[in-house]
Every structure is written in structure tokens, then in C-alpha cells.
Amino acid sequence: MSSTHPLPRICAVVPAYKVHNFVVNVVNGLFDYVDHVFVVDDACPHASGHTVEQAFSGHPQVTVLRLPDNLGVGGAVMAGYKAAAEQGFEILIKVDGDGQMDPSFIPSLIAPIVAGEADYTKGNRFFEPDGLRSMPLVRLVGNAGLSFLTKLSTGYWQIMDPTNGFTAIHADVLPWIKLERVAQRYFFETDLLFRLGIVNAVVMDIPMPARYGDEVSNLRVGQALTDFSRKHAARIAKRITYQYFLRGFSLGSLCLALAMPLILFATLFGGYEWYRSITTGIPATAGSIMLAALPAMVGIQLLLSFFSLDMARHASKPLWILLYQRNNHTRRTHAPEKQGSQN
Question: How many whole angstroms separate alpha carbon 226 and alpha carbon 61?
């Protein structure tokens, strides 16, 4: 990216639902780091949006968006993204309205995007072991489980802390992920990662400590693990089908295509032989055991090879940079030639 490229316009999107006691302080803390703040009142029963309007009446850097129906945190954020992009903001930061996020980390959060190294960045509270001591045990265990499922369903094996909502994204990426299809409730952060993975966007984790105060989270980790597991399973199937069999065919595709039938055969045949041995009292023959064990071993080895290849697979250049370069090339190609001076 050229050094003459102007500094990007930066805004914060703050979903507001039952955060009337915190949201004014949150907005106040953002002015030193962003050009504008969009507060999205997600049909809040406590009128969080009205609280912001009263506190910042006529403030040129604050816009309150009111949703007629409660869409959930994902729906509120997508509405804020859409409004911000329409007004020409380039880097959109999602900040929760409950005060859990320290705005002083915003420069670190957006730095890889500004430098042309990432399309999307997110906080990672797991980076420093000392910082984990402040995290409740149930959240720590739940986040670890969700992190593994997220790696499988998105292909971003290098990221952790998928429920961390402190994120930043370049607006040029938004049309590629189809905001109207992103999950509207708490799963939206993982669903957004899934859609970013499909278009090969570059995602980075930014280390930052956890911060907990008097706020009450509406997310229940136990319920999230149960509900999210089902959604993760669907996205794992979609990602692998699309990336390895529809958009292209690679060594990873071959490993997976061979591994699954072998493992399935070993499971069904081995299970049948075990059941027959139990019911008849006749031990399975050495040949039968080998016929079940050999496909299982080969299949597992092929599956491990697939995971190794999947972990090594990642985008090398941010999508928004590629789009920026392509648009510049198009403008240069179609620019009218300067006519020479006439004698």
C-alpha cells in the first residue's frame, strides 16, 4: 500500500442492550481513539439508546441507531457495520457496551489492518497466562472448548478466544461476507470467522488482558457449548465441502476422501465382528481383526495428514489490500491518456 494513502476513517460500533448503566462511560472512553461512535439500541427494554442521546445530545461524533425489534448482538453489530460503511468509515471496531473492553487497546487492535497485514483482528485473552487468573474458571474451560470447535469450523487454527467480542474489520471486506446471512445472536462472532475463512481473509489475534467489573453477561457458557456445537458441526461440513471439493481439489482433499471410507468401513466391519463374537461366543479370527484394524490405522493416518495440511493452509495477503490494488490498477488502465501539446 502506498505511503501516500490517507489515514483510514475509524469508527466504533457499540451494541446496546441492557447496558444503560455502563454505555455512557464506554462511549466517553472511545473519543480519543475513533472518529465516530455508532450506538445500536437493540430494542433495549431499558432504553440504552435514549440514555446515550441524553448524554450526548447534538454531539457530532455520536450516532444512535434504533432497531424496532431485538435482533441479538450479532444483528445489532451488523446494522452498525452497514450504517458505518455507508457513511464511508473504513475500519469498524466492535466494542461491547458493558465496559469489559479497554479502549486503550484500540491502537493495537487496528494496527495490523492499517499496516495492510490483516482484514480482521480480534482480542485474545489467552495469550498471557497471568491474565487468565482473573477469568472465571467456567469461562476459561468453555472458551477452550469453543476455541477448538472454532478452529475446526473456520480453518483459523492460529486463533484462540472465539467469544472475545473486541474486534476490528476493514469495511471493504463486508460485501464479501454477506452481512444479512451472518448469525444474529451470540454465535455471530464465530459465524463471521467462518465466512471470513471462506473468502480467505487474513485474521489476526491481538493479545490483551481480560477485564471484568460489575457487569452481568447475558451469555451462558454451558448453554453456548450445547447450542454452538450443533452450529459448528454444520459449518465444519460446509467449510470442508466448499474449500476442499467445490472450489478446488488438493492433497488434503485426497487424504480426506480416502480416510473417511476407510474409517467408516473399519468401524462398521469391526463393530459387526465384535457383536458376532459376543453373541456366538466364537472369537474373531486373526484375519477379521486385521481386516478391521488395517483400514482403521491407514484411515486415521490419512485423517491426521489432512489436519496437518489444513493447519498449514492460510491466506498470505489481506483481501482488502488485493481489492485496493485491483481497483487502483483498474483506474490506471481506464484513465484517459493525456493529449500532447499542439503546435
Answer: 40
The residue extents of the domains of the chain are: 10-245, 249-321
What is the reported pTM? 0.86
Q: How far apart are CA 213 and CA 231, in angstroms?
A: 30
Helix axes 72-86, 188-198, angle to 10 degrees: 50
Alpha carbon distances (Å) from 75 to 47, 182, 192, 223, 343: 17, 8, 12, 20, 64
Model confidence over 122-171: pLDDT tens digits? 999 877 766 666 666 766 777 777 888 899 999 999 988 887 889 999 99
**pLDDT tens profile 293-341:** 999 999 999 999 999 999 998 888 999 998 888 877 665 666 555 444 4
Out of 3.40.50.2000, 1.10.1750.10, 3.40.50.300, 3.90.550.10, the CATH code matching 10-245 is 3.90.550.10
Q: What is the mean pLDDT of residues 214-222?
A: 52
Round the CA-based radius of gyration of the chain to a whole number and report it: 25
